[in-house]
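Let's practice the habit of predicting before peeking. Look at the sequence and jot down your guess about where helices and strands might fall. Then scroll down.
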Amino acid sequence: FVALLASVARLFTQQATPAPCFIRAVEEVLVPLLATREATATRVADRLGLSRQTLYRRLRDEGTSFEKLHA
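Done guessing? Here is the structure:
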């Protein structure tokens, strides 16, 4: 739970920073979930405090997608 809060806090402090920080934040949440087979866009978005649509939009704005990061 503390790690989740830390991830969310990092995301909020990095929202105004360059794109790679957001992608990195997504990867920090995504990678541990890959091992548990719970790596869905909805679960990652929830852990980042975003809607799934916002996650998709922000990744698209940065020139990538959840599917590309998940691969």
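How did you do? Residues 19-36 form the longest helix (18 residues).
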